[in-house]
Structures are given as structure tokens and as C-alpha cells.
Amino acid sequence: MTAHATVRGDVAVLVPAAGMGVRLGPGGPKALRLLGGEPLLVHAVRRLALAPSVGCIVVAAPADAVADVVALLASVAPVTVVAGGATRQASVAAALAAVPADFEIVLVHDAARALTPPELVESVAAAVRGGHGAVIPVLPVVDTIKRVSDSGSVVETVDRSVLRAVQTPQGFRRDVLVKAHEAAVDEHTDDAGMAERIGIPVHTVPGAEAALKITRPFDLAVAELLL
Questions:
Q1: How far apart are the first and last CA of the chain?
Q2: Strand-pair partners of 39
Q3: Which of 109, 60, 57 is nearest to 86 (CA)?
Q4: How far is 160 from 140, CA to CA, in rounded Å?
Q5: What distance in Å separates the CA atoms of residue 139 and residue 137, rounded to the nearest whole number?
Q6: Whole-model pTM?
Q7: What b/e string do you get for 167-195 counting C-beta neighbours within 10 Å, with b at 16 or more?
């Protein structure tokens, strides 16, 4: 179902939004939880629509809430809403199948990163447009990281200088994302990891602190403060 239809830029963005988000506590699908009085999905789509490169947004909604999500986003941005699957990977695949054939750059974005700035969307898209098959935004790891055994004993201290925390949107040439999904033999929650599996080099660009992932009640409280 489509709320509006328009094309501005050369980038399509997929937003898998069918998950329940159990770590956030009870209250329905995570993407529809409220942040500052509006669902996370509304915040996320609004910011995606502000990125000049974005010409297509496809949301994979809970199967029983497609019409509700169409109505929710009708006044926010031009979107196409499809029924999501039982897993994130299935939802991404369903959204990808709905992207018009003329979009060769595809980004995958988590609605839980509701405050991601449009500038980060543009940075990822530009890197794909510049020739990279797969691109992820990253931040340096600031905490000391320990590898521990099953018993809880420290095995080693990991060199954090070579570690990065990965954010979304993750960007791909369309053919890369299609091949990565076709080759998947088990479930993945990271599309760039699927691209790695088929031998695609993954390029990094600087992430954004505001693009935090809202997973727990504490994260929601931080996002409220940022608003």
C-alpha cells in the first residue's frame, strides 16, 4: 500500500519495522512505541525524507498493521508500506522486492535509530555512489572490552583501537544486497554481515552519536533528552 508516490533522488531506503522489541518491554511493535508523543517510526521516516538523495522509502510493517502504518505515515513522507516477515531478514527482503527497478542504491535503516540525522544518510549514500558495494556508518568503541570465558573469567583484553560500533543506515548497490539475501543460509540481523559472507568488501564512514539504537527503556529515556 502506498501513502504517496514521488521520486526525488536516486536512493531507496528500506525500513524493517515489524519486530516486537521485547527488550524495550511490553507495548506492541517497537517501531510504534512513542518517543516525545510520536512513534519511533515517524521520527525515523521524517529524517530519512529530509535527505535529498532519498527518492523511495519502503517500510515493512507488522502484517496486521499495514493499513494503520499507511495512515500513520500519510502526512509524514511519501512511503510504500508492505507486510513484514517473521524475522528482520524476511522483512528486509519483502521491502527490497517492492523497490522500483530504477533504484540502484539501497539503504537499510532501523526504525529504532529514530534520531539519525539526514546528513548521515547522505554520507552513506555518497559512499555507495562513489563505487563501494557495501557501506556502514561506524563509531569508535570507547569502553574497555574484555573477552570472557563461559565461567565469567577474563580471557583477554581486546585492543579497542581496531573495533567499531556499527550503526544504520547501511548502504548497498542493489545487486549486492540482492545477492547477499539470495546466498543467506541462516538468519542475520546485519545486512553488511551478509555481504561479507559473499566476499563483498565493506567500507566504513563516520557515524553519528545521535543515531543511537533505542533498544532498552534507558535508551528511550536518553532519546527523550536528545529531543
A1: 30
A2: 34
A3: 60
A4: 8
A5: 7
A6: 0.91
A7: bbbbbbbbebbebbbeebeeebeebbbbb
Record the cell numbers describing residue 11, joined without a space: 536512493
149, burial (CB in 10 Å: exposed 0-12, middle 13-18, buried 19+): exposed
What is the Cα–Cα distance from 84 to 66, expressed in whole angstroms? 9
Per-residue pLDDT of 125-165, as tens digits, reads 999 999 999 999 999 999 999 999 999 999 999 999 999 99
Q: How far is residue 38's CA from residue 11's CA, in Å, rounded to a whole number?
A: 26
Query: What is the Cα–Cα distance from 92 to 17, expressed in whole angstroms?
Result: 9
Q: Are 63 and 18 spatial neighbours (Cβ–Cβ below 8 Å)? A: yes
Joined grid coordinates for residue 34: 512513542
pLDDT in tens, 93-105: 999 999 999 999 9
What phi and psi values does residue 220 have, to the nearest 5 degrees? -65, -40
